[in-house]
Amino acid sequence: IGSFPNWPLQPQVPETSSLLTIMVSIVSIKARQIFDSRGNPTVEVDLVTELGEYRAAVPSGASTGEFEALEMRDGGKDYMGKGVLNAVRNVNEIIAPALVGKDVTKQAEIDRFMVEELDGTQNEWGWCKKKLGANAILGVSLALCRAGAAAKKQPLWQHIADLAGNPTPCLPVPSFNIINGGSHAGNKLAMQEFMILPVGATSFTEAMKIGSEVYHNLKKVIKGRYGLDATAVGDEGGFAPNIQSNGEAIDLIEEAIKAAGYTNQVRLGMDVAASEFYTGAEDARYNLDFKNENAAESEKISADKLQEVYEGFIAKCANSSKIVSIEDPFDQDDWASWVKFTGKVGKDVQIVGDDLTVTNPTRVKKAIEQKACNALLLKVNQIGSITESIEAVTMAKKAGWGIMASHRSGETEDTFIADLAVGLSAGQIKTGAPCRSERLAKYNQLLRIEEELGNKARYAGEDFRDVEKLGKYSTF
Q: What are the positions of the active site (predicted)?
């Protein structure tokens, strides 16, 4: 049974099965309501074929982009309106009967059938999934992908690579979110994530060692400076000390990196999630004290001033760990600021579109045309199907963008994105700190994949954002 936490790397398929002669059909699909890492309801789907049962669970975000596909929540009093029983019902009563008997290896065909025919709702950015819910469709799409891998007697990452036409899978650089702020923590930090990337590691296993040791050194640094109560963690496992200075967060991390002895092997990244503290189009400022209802006017700054803040961070770290990645530096509709900033620093710093692009091919196309960013954050639940996610990645790669596969702040023990990152040669993955089991589940799956591959494994390392170099890696 392909259910977590112990999904087999090699799907359990009878020896007599043949990819060329046997079509594996869907026997049944059942959805249920479970809980994510924040204690909120989410959708889980079991898809059954004659070969076994394949399970997937859907994550959800706290800082969500305005243009994401529409997840379905029940509203009302139960679970503070966050129940998903209507999405579950849509799977069980609409999607499941329509898919029974279909070939599980036909991922694109089935995804499009769900999105365009069973749901069929659209907005200006494409198929919005308003009728059935993106969380309903995605749960089935993920479970289907696992079943397809089993039918082909392949590891999930290899099946995903085949679906994407990718001959050069690789192990990604982990981007560990070790200080949490913004909407992911109850502290005063406006910026949401402060990350480390062990680009100097020689393997994913070594990258995990580096990440773990820096993380524990950071705990010592924070405890020594602010006391034990400052070592509480946020939604994604990073520490959440009650500081307001974003620059101070960077200082803490650099001290921890130095204490761990990895200054030359680790680089820094940030997810600003600036849409969360944008004051709106009329005022057009960014409130760096947005969690305070009585924030001083001096904390509300223009996009130009915010760019100066980023440039100050980059200059400050230029001779030490170096900032190599900044995600969502401006509001999702502040296109002019994105274009200006990417044009100025994009050669040396990866500018990642998350709320800007929401893994949506139409938004990605616009960002490419305007040169608004140079990397895509890949979140499957932003768009709602595996096929559309692959389309967005393919488009971004053709533009020379880096790719960072990502979790959501509301996660489950599902490890799908680990295989997704390898199969698509994402080069990078962010799935939290090396803390909290729903985060470590993904990292541990990557360790298993690397172990399975042995000397054939390739770690992205310094090439994490270089699509051309990643595309030349030796094939498995």
A: 236, 379
